[in-house]
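Margin note from the TA: students keep mixing up input and output lines. Inputs are the sequences; the output is the structure of the whole complex. Example:
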Amino acid sequence: MYCLCSDKSHDEIMEEQRRTPLSFELMINAYTRCMDGCGSCVEELRERFEKEYIASDLVILRVGQ
Amino acid sequence: MLFPSLFARLEQNRWNLGSDIRWQDFDASKLTERHLHGIKMNAILEWSAMPTAEMFLRDNSQDADFSAFTSIWFFEEQKHSLVLLEYLRRFAPEFCPTEGELSAVRFSFDSAPALESLALHFCGEVRLNQWYRCAASYHREPVIRQIYDTLANDEARHARAYLDYMRKSLQQRGIEAALAFAKIGVLMTNARVNKAMHPTNLHVNKALYPDDTVNGRLPDPRWLEQWLSDEIRFDRQWEQKVEQGILGNLSGLLDHDFPDSHALRSYHKKLSRSAANP
């Protein structure tokens, strides 16, 4: 899937998240333009985030780490 | 059926023409007559959603789901025209198109293969999303910038909705759908074919040829080319964003990596051969 507003594929967005893990909201703010854009990708990115990460306000842990 | 969830998704993001546009921020000093001419032309182009909706409903009479979605798409595209008309009405009424100018872009489109038409409009929405983003960054007048940004986001949502219907068609019609989508993808990512590759530039009614493109029926048929090249400067960098948007989404849809238009063309050739010799 490709995010038109961010000009990035979802894989590229998740790769940036892997390099510097953030909470979901920060990930969306830092690595996408979804908040200023159409918002269509947010739910799909949330699903990917929730599969890959366990997150609290303090700690972000990649599943399997 | 995709219609209920798409309705909810689009409803959630719906903006209000009266209260969400910051009309009070208008700054006349940042506007030229040429800008206003472009806003008028775009208002008329958006009006051409009307014959497109008529075509969709006619050519998809067996598909209740997609026909229902067409109602939302048509509503939102007419709203795009209306917000531009409202801008002109408030700030430059002398540029408002006449009803005759709006009616000129409503004419009958010939029947088109439904799958190709679907892919064509997906590509068209991706392109329009980038044209409006480019226009928003070009203008300095704050209200029209906000309007173009708002329209760009709507077009991106429409592209996603079309993509959802393409995915559904792929599940139902397999290789026939993949062939149609790849074919249109190749045509719509080849900048040598036509610089302004958008449905409004296509000939759509043999009986009316050559007066059968929406652009050709604008009061200024040469405007779009000039707007893209000389005004908003929709250059190679912007064009690449369109290509990436189309190819990136087709990659996910067809489960194949298309880094460029050539890769999609090769995929289409291979698929055509295997469809001819199953």
